[in-house]
Amino acid sequence: MKKLNSNKALVVFSGGQDSTTCMFYAMHHYDEVELVTFNYGQRHALEIDIAKQIAEEQGLKHHVLDMSLLSQLSPNALTHHDLQIEGDDIPNTFVPARNLLFMSFAAALAYQINAKHIITGVCETDFSGYPDCRDNFIKALNVTINLSMDLNFEIHTPLMWLDKKETWALADTLGQLDYVRNKTLTCYNGVPADGCGDCPSCKLRNNGLNQYLQEKESGDLK
């Protein structure tokens, strides 16, 4: 039976705040870390470039997989650039089956590189209505992936129960708050670092950062 390396992790990596924090989390906990980024025709190709740059700066092996078929399956504001970003119960930035496919392909890659641990930055606390960011989905998928390959992968979601303030706190605990703040791209409008300040993603990120910095300065951190 194939044996997975229990000290090796594969991080699903977009170059944004959450996945970069997960990258540093993985580097702190495992001897070997590799990154996988999916090119699915996302709104800003700069996301891929930033992911590559961070991987190079951190000296990590970086896999970029072509998932462009996602943009053919359904119109949404992350893959169809002419659509305005709108929020509802499930916002039009939701890409159906994205995490289902990403995690399945990540597991296939983890199989090839013998990585037991797969790390993703999905979060139920600030999940913006995305059903494929929920804890019960990830747990069910972990079981399914293990059954499909007859192996014992472990999917880790270190941000699952953290809000954005707490995610910034984790980055700071790992000694990487400034790096995550200045090197990542989270903005829906493609503006790196602190972003445009207006899109839903920037508002969530910046509100969390401001809350964390204010509490840290006042000594009120819990």
Q: Would you give an account of this structure?
A:
- The chain is α/β, with parallel strands linked by helices and 222 residues long.
- Helix content is 44%, strand content 14%.
- The protein contains eight helices and five strands.
- The chain has a five-stranded parallel beta sheet, sandwiched between helices.
- Helix 1 (17-29) runs parallel beside helix 6.
**Main beta sheet:** 5 strands, parallel
**What would you call the shape?**
globular
- DSSP helix fraction: 40-55%
Please state roughly what percent of the residues sit in beta strands, choosing from under 5%, 5-15%, 15-25%, 25-35%, 35-45% or over 45%.
5-15%
Rounded to the nearest angstrom, the distance between the terminal CA atoms is 46 Å
Number of helices: 8
Query: Largest sheet, order of strands side by side?
Result: 3-2-1-4-5
- Give the mean pLDDT: 89
Question: What Rg do the Cα atoms give?
Answer: 17 Å
Written as H for each helix and E for each strand, in order along the chain, the element string is EHEHEHHEHEHHH
Helix/strand/pairing category: alpha/beta
Low-confidence stretches: 76-87
The total strand number stands at 5
